[in-house]
Design brief:
- Two copies of one chain form a homodimer.
- Chain A is an alpha/beta fold.
- The first copy, chain A, has three domains: about 5-200, Molybdenum Cofactor Biosythetic Enzyme, Chain A; about 210-285, Ribosomal protein S10 (Alpha-Beta Plaits, 2-Layer Sandwich), CATH 3.30.70; about 295-439, Alpha-Beta Complex (Maf protein).
- Helix content of chain A is about 40%, strand content about 20%.
- In chain A, the strands form four sheets. A six-stranded mixed beta sheet of chain A has the order 2-1-3-8-7-6, with helices on both faces. Chain A has a five-stranded mixed beta sheet with strand order 14-13-15-16-17, sandwiched between helices. In chain A, strands 10-11-9-12 form a four-stranded antiparallel beta sheet, covered by helices on one side.
- In chain A, strand 6 and strand 7 (about 135-140) form a beta hairpin.
- At the A-B interface, helix 1, helix 2, strand 2, helix 8 and strand 10 of A face helix 1, helix 2, strand 2, helix 8 and strand 10 of B.
């Protein structure tokens, strides 16, 4: 089955907003056995949206659009698609009632602009929006079935409807065009509650198995060199192996389709695990912070943090993990030396003699924060994020990471000469990996 | 001029990786006067990559591909495009030398896999990779010019080359196909150092002006209702107005093309600023944390943080701003009540009587952290991120935000019933906005 996504939005084409729908929808659809074959983004302009949707309908059984269903003047997807398919827009009373309730609950008058959101193309299935006002819409483009549906529909008038003007005409017996609202917090629950059941009813899932093994400490080329001979026979039998280099880690992705998919992926995983061993920190969606929270939870142990150059990013990543509060006592973000002395008990002598970015200070920060929070483990990070502040002995990107526990403190030195955000991210990953290896 | 982007990568279609190239490239190209008309993503499969590139070349003067140039077996873009265009792959000595240097510097042997990266399509411009091994490639598809280039090239053999097999044939006098490597830290510097000069030489920039005004505290429909009458005449004259709802804020985007673009956008901005007034916290790329750092820097004032439910996210956002260290003393992430008492001086009595999520505790956290860091301002956040922990009086999403300064403490209560990451993000934005309004 071919599945295509059309993301509409001038803000996407101007690069003003990050398109997170592509990843989210592709991921959920793959998990449901429908791998997306193409994703397209176009601006909120009539010709471009219609052309992109028309082309997608010429290739795919399922086309999902995002965006352009809201109340403002640049929300034009609903109208353009109705026009292209020759369907009238008719008011839907369920949507009217839903929007009334939405504003009543918030004690605000319903803005006149929301009127347009109550109009739906004739014969469309309507998905009420649990977290907003604009409904989602689904159109089945199988002509006979469509006629039947129109007969059932309350709003269906007896008037004749122009026939579909798709070009090229679809070669499928049945197609679905699903339109979802743009804001992620509206799209995501709507996909789960309305689109997932629709897909289950209308499309047979294909057998598709995907497993991603996440490794750290080895480069991308070297990872492939290490494993390719061992998985060669499986690749011959239909296993696909993909590699993806990320900041601080390399993903190995094993996928297969059809009856032997699970068996092939399973065999591939066993080989990759055997070869990469402790370099693998997790699989699929595992982030290293989740693995660390899981390990600490299982051991009933706790963690505290003292962050200088990562500026709270390490705490932020840990507290993104549901349940982190059971193991994470807290942390201190200490940019100023005074805070390092006063709150962490770092000695003025160490700061003077070795500088804030030094093994000695990292060590004292870790010990200090472990004592302050009375935690089992403590991680401390101090480094030079740049762009300024580097010296010949300690160039920009220099980092000291200290791990303190009851047995003592271990400090590792790293060089991460990346721009600010990548620097914070890679450094945080290294600190978490240092703790993971200890657990 | 039409510009299209083709992102290749099975990991994108399986939703295993977020596509950040779309936003980054669209943004940079728009800034250079070349608005991207379409972006397409396809899997690393021969037929799909070739079809997508062929279609893009049938529509656009500039096509940029990302990904598929690396050393592993799923990096197939280079070869597929060379094949499609009927160009031989020839070894390039500059690339060989560059890759040798790359590994020599790191004291590692050069992996055999990197051999494929030294092959480039005949006649391609080669962009050496400052932060990796795979070079970028650019092909000019103007037939005559191309022949000339081949004559000059060292690698050019006298052998005849199959003619271009584009379908549909391009209707442009000259086209450029630019291939960039997938990792963002390789793609971005290469775009700046090699693609920007190429575009400046080969394409006349169109006049395009874009201004985004970022507002907070008013919903999307209401924003449009407030401003549309005032900008109507400018819209008639060619101004485009777009709206984008984001967590905690609404962007108003003003764009125009041609000779009067700057004038139209300028007049639109004046109207929007007049009407939305203090709701506008910044423009274009301004994040509210940048505005806050700027304001504090100008006033030579400092800030400390006490975070409970935002778990370090507020500190992380602030420390993403270059120069934040001049105004940000530090912060405490205090998940456990014990840490609130011991490190912030929150009274056990307040915790017992009102609970950790209360106005009283927020107030004492702000005062405590302000005293500990001796800062001018302090923000404290305590709330219930959920999914558990809600009560009828304090449902999930309840947040207290306290702002302490020399004059006293102000506490605001909010309800942010979103999922964990959105909750942290919206709450952090509200805290920063509370401080911004005070500055």
């Amino acid at each position: 089955m071919n599945v295509e996504i059309v993301n509409t939005g001038s803000e996407l084409m101007l690069g003003r907003v990050l398109n997170t729908h592509q990843q989210w929808l592709c991921r959920r659809l793959a998990d449901l056995g429908h791998v997306v074959t193409r994703q397209v983004a176009v601006a909120d302009r009539g010709g471009e949206i219609q052309q992109a949707v028309r082309e997608a309908l010429g290739r795919a059984e399922l086309v999902i659009t995002t965006g352009g269903l809201g109340p403002t003047s640049d929300d034009i997807t609903r109208e353009l698609i109705a026009q292209m398919l020759g369907r009238k827009l008719v008011p839907n009373q369920d949507v009217v009632a839903h929007i009334e309730r939405f504003f009543a609950k918030r004690g605000r008058p319903r803005p006149l602009k929301t009127e347009v959101e109550t109009l739906v193309p004739e014969g469309a299935l309507v998905f009420l929006n649990e977290t907003g006002t604009a409904p989602g819409l689904a159109l089945c483009l199988e002509p006979e079935r469509d006629e039947e549906r129109r007969g059932e529909s309350e709003e269906g008038s007896g008037a004749s409807r122009p026939s579909s003007i798709l070009h090229p005409p679809p070669s499928f017996a049945k197609q679905w065009l699903v339109m979802l609202p743009g804001p992620p917090r509206e799209l995501r629950p709507m996909f789960e509650s309305a689109v997932v059941p629709l897909l289950a009813r209308e499309f047979a899932a294909e057998i598709f198995v995907c497993r991603t093994l996440r490794s750290t400490g080895v480069g991308e080329s070297r990872v492939q060199e290490m494993i390719e001979a061992a998985v060669q026979s499986m690749v011959g039998a239909g296993l696909e192996v993909g590699y993806c280099a990320r900041p601080g880690s390399v993903d190995v992705r094993l996928t297969a389709e059809g009856g032997k998919a699970a068996q092939l992926v399973h065999a591939g995983e066993a080989e990759v695990r055997r070869i990469l061993g402790p370099h693998i920190f997790g699989c699929d969606d595992d982030e290293i912070e989740e693995v660390v929270v899981r390990l600490l939870t299982a051991r009933k142990q706790s963690l505290a943090l003292a962050e200088s150059c990562t500026g709270g990013h390490l705490a932020h990543r840990l507290t993104n993990v549901p349940g982190a509060s059971a193991v994470f006592c807290g942390g201190l973000v200490s940019y100023a030396n005074e805070a390092k002395e006063k709150l962490l008990g770092v000695r003025a002598e160490s700061l003077r003699q070795h500088g804030a970015v030094s093994e000695a200070v990292a060590r004292e920060m870790a010990m200090g924060v472990r004592a302050a929070f009375r935690s089992d483990f403590a991680l401390a990070v101090t480094g030079i994020a740049g762009p300024g502040g580097g010296t010949p002995e300690k160039p920009v990107g220099t980092v000291f990471i200290a791990l303190a526990c009851a047995e003592g403190v271990a400090v590792e030195q790293r060089l991460n000469p990346w721009e600010r955000l990548t620097f914070k991210d890679v450094t945080a990953t290294q600190a978490l990996e240092q703790l993971r290896r200890r657990l």
